[in-house]
UniProtKB/TrEMBL annotation:
Protein name listed in UniProt: Transcriptional regulator
Signal sequence segment: none
Domain of life where this protein originates: Bacteria
One Gene Ontology MF term: DNA-binding transcription factor activity
Provenance organism: Streptomyces pilosus
Residue span(s) of domain HTH arsR-type: 42-87
Pfam families per record: HTH_5
Length: 261
């Protein structure tokens, strides 16, 4: 995406929940050096994958499928349960119940399922393409992108308007981090840089830059000054970086106490 300078706009921007970017199978939690050296993490992923492929499973079933001892399977299941990847439950019985307690099985949690391949990125891209083709091309996608921002707008407004002008970029960074953007603020010549180290919609934004443009417009409107997007993850950069010039005392006085919407 090319560099772009955006000024504050006169209305709030209308945001469904974040489109999630779940790509490939993820390792849950932090792997220690010992785990990496012994292959513990790889085996644990095999246990989780077996449950995904075969459904809720007993320790004995997992041990047989994976060629592991039941003690080893239990150890891995304990770790996966602690990471909220699997949970223990009673096996559902269809028909007449037999005597004795139902077998305990281990099933994936919602968190566990999200650690595997999902089609959220493709779904998002397909939906945006459909909007563009059926509802008015690039302008329709831009309208959707603005609408998407609005659902979070109020939270960000409260965070920014509750602090002094010189603290607004830092407050916005903290609010963005709470939504998963891993954002930081740092000083720059004649201003500040807002850095977002993660973008939940990066894959969709690669094809539809309107998502980035709407976000940039919102930052300008929210902070009451023009801003310049220097880099984006969607464009292949390591960090989304937005330059925010230092707001003059006169400018801050003229906008203080006024809702930018």
């Amino acid at each position: 995406m090319t560099q772009r300078t955006v000024g504050p706009i006169g209305r709030g921007l209308p945001v469904p929940d974040e489109l999630r970017n779940n790509g490939v199978v993820k390792n849950v939690g932090e792997a220690s050096h010992e785990e990496l050296a012994t292959g513990e993490r790889s085996t644990r992923n095999r246990v989780a994958r077996s449950i995904l492929d075969h459904g809720p499973s007993t320790v004995a079933e997992l041990a047989e499928r994976l060629g592991l001892t039941q003690a080893a399977v239990r150890r891995h299941l304990d770790t996966l349960a602690a990471d909220n990847v699997v949970e223990a439950r009673e096996r559902r019985v269809y028909g007449a119940r037999t005597r004795g307690r139902p077998a305990k099985v281990f099933a994936l949690t919602d968190c566990g399922r999200d650690a595997f391949d999902q089609s959220y990125d493709k779904l998002a891209v397909d939906a945006l393409r459909w909007i563009g083709e059926r509802e008015g091309g690039s302008e329709a996608i831009a309208a959707f992108a603005r609408a998407r921002i609005a659902a979070q707008a109020e939270t960000y407004r409260r965070a920014v308007e509750g602090v002094a002008p010189e603290e607004r970029t830092e407050a916005l960074a903290k609010a963005l981090s709470a939504d998963g953007y891993a954002a930081t603020a740092r000083s720059a010549p004649v201003g500040e840089q807002l850095c977002q180290h993660h973008c939940p919609v990066a894959h969709a934004a690669e094809q539809f830059p309107q998502l980035c443009e709407a976000e940039t417009e919102f930052f300008a409107e929210l902070l009451g000054t023009h801003v310049q997007r220097l880099a984006t993850i969607a464009h292949g950069d390591g960090v989304c970086t937005t330059f925010i010039p230092k707001i003059s005392h006169h400018a801050s006085e003229s906008t203080s106490g006024r809702n930018p919407a």
